[in-house]
Amino acid sequence: MRARLPRLLVLPLLVLLATCRPSGHDATAFDYVIGVSMANLTEPWRINMRDEINAEAAHHANLRIVFTDAADSNSRQIQDVHTLLSSGIDLLIISPNDSEALSPVITEAYHRIPVVLLDRSVIGFDYTLFIGPDNRLIGKQAGEYVTGLLGEKGGKVVEIMGRSGSPPVLDRSVGFRDAISPSRSITIVGTIVADWLRDKAEDELSAWLKRYGRVDVIFAQNDAMAEGARRAAEKLGINGIRVVGIDGLPGPDGGIELVRSGALSATFTCPTGGKEAIIYAMDILHHEEGIPKKMILRTSLVTEKTIESGALGAPARPRLSPDHRIVLGFAQTGAESNWRLANTDSIKTAARQAGIDLVFVDSEGQPEKQIAAVRSFIARKVDIISFSPIVESGWEPVLREAKAAGIPVFLSDRTVDVKDESLWTTFMGSDFLEEGRRAARWLINYMKTDAPVNIVELLGTIGSAPEIDRTLGFKEMLKEHPNYRIIVSESGNFERSTGREVMQQILQELVAKGQKMDALFAHNDDMAIGAIAAMEAWGIRPGKDVAIVSVDGIRDAFTAMIAGKLNCSVECNPLLGPQLMKAVKDYMAGKDLPVRLITSEGVYPAAVARTVLPSRKY
Ligand code: AHR
Questions:
Q1: Domains identified in the chain and CATH numbers
Q2: Residue ranges of the chain with pLDDT lower than 50?
Q3: Candidate of 552, 554, 576 to mutate for ligand 1, largest count of ligand atoms within 8 Å of Cβ
Q4: Index of the ligand 1 atom closest to the CA of residue 413
Q5: Would you say 512 and 495 are in contact if contact means Cβ atoms under 8 Å apart?
């Protein structure tokens, strides 16, 4: 809650701007004011977002919401944010018109108050929480659906896109094209840009069909354009074109109704996140712990069949007696690192505190043992299964068994590589790709050189999600800096002792080849610490002769940084227990869960190690 004075400024603003005042409350009796800066208030999807925000805000008598409408103009939205800030709002929710153009003003806001980004992100990390869909995934699901629809015979597809340059346009298109590309008999014969608008889609498609003739499927990036396309075909008397959209909004003109009436073959729900924005904004204002950095919302396929079967939305939960104790089966990877020990401790403590019965299995780094543990949870009929997969592959069969048994699977820390994403319910953990990018960004910035930089990479467990993604993220950043070269990549299995042994071998090989190592990127701190010991035994000064960056942010890494032996640790937060237990309880209470919750994390260079160490919890 902020000082009283700004309320004086907020009140005129409440009158000036189109405001939401949940009825029946005294307009001056509020503790919090949230400013909501909308890119526009004309598209149906955004109107739905506003309505969800209002509906959720109505549950808080002490909250006022102030909306601004930028009418698709970047300069106007920048001005809107300034107006909201100067009126003394406590928190900003913003759905940016353009990610790049809005980034500076969002950074400015973030330095003053918490900022929740809706739908579109910004450049960098200057925000409190991002809530939105995974547009590439939605596009992929649409592509898979169209592939199934056309079958082996294949056919011709026209894609109708939203406004050029807007991030969902590219992501949805890339996801769609990736999904249809294996089928050689499907061809995208036309691409139309209709700016998200129904009437423009109708006019443009009508002209296209007159010129080029009939197609088999129209994939429109939103339902409004899908409806425009359908009208165009109808007016030209062309029957049998199947139209697929995205948004799946409720209400009389929404996508769900369009599917029910047969106007569209299918749509994919794209939640606005309006409700979640208010729920989390209130948690942020109440200084609750464990606020994620990113929350990715679930998408569902809407067809006549899914509507009829009632399969839309969250699956039905069993009715539980009030004294039912929730049983959670958790299969841990092992005890390979200090990070893992902290993770195990967090899960056990949080389960105890939440009153959840935890069946805990240590898989001792053996994928077969972990799969067997999951099978034993199914046999035991636990309420929920969770695990941190040692490796990404090999999960399909056992997850099918869990699904057949009606037991939901929550992935913790690491993901699985399965085609059918309905085999798991939710994921919570870090963005490993980003951790790899962050390590590379730090290194490039630290070395600041155009001279050749020889990098040794100590990989985590081969085939594990962090090993795969940290490598990808790191290499992605190096692409633009060809003087940075990875000369050796070896796995240290995330273990300190293995990190040390592997580094010894690498040093021997480098000497034999007459090669010099300038930097080390270790996929975790434990391996870096092992490698530091190996370097010292070799007479190399770690942190001085070799720049070292690793991932995790464990206490030992901070001690090594203070001693000048490690240069930077990129945080990977293992304290996932409270989030996991909250998700378990929410699920059992019938609440819908986001598809992914990404933890908030930082980057700690040696310069801040001494100040930060006392506050480290693991
Ligand atoms: O999956 C997270 C990784 O697993 C941590 O970075 C590493 O230390 C661990 O054991």
A1: 18-132+273-295 (3.40.50.2300), 135-268 (3.40.50.2300), 327-430 (3.40.50.2300), 432-572 (3.40.50.2300)
A2: 1-6, 8, 15, 18-27
A3: 552
A4: 1
A5: no
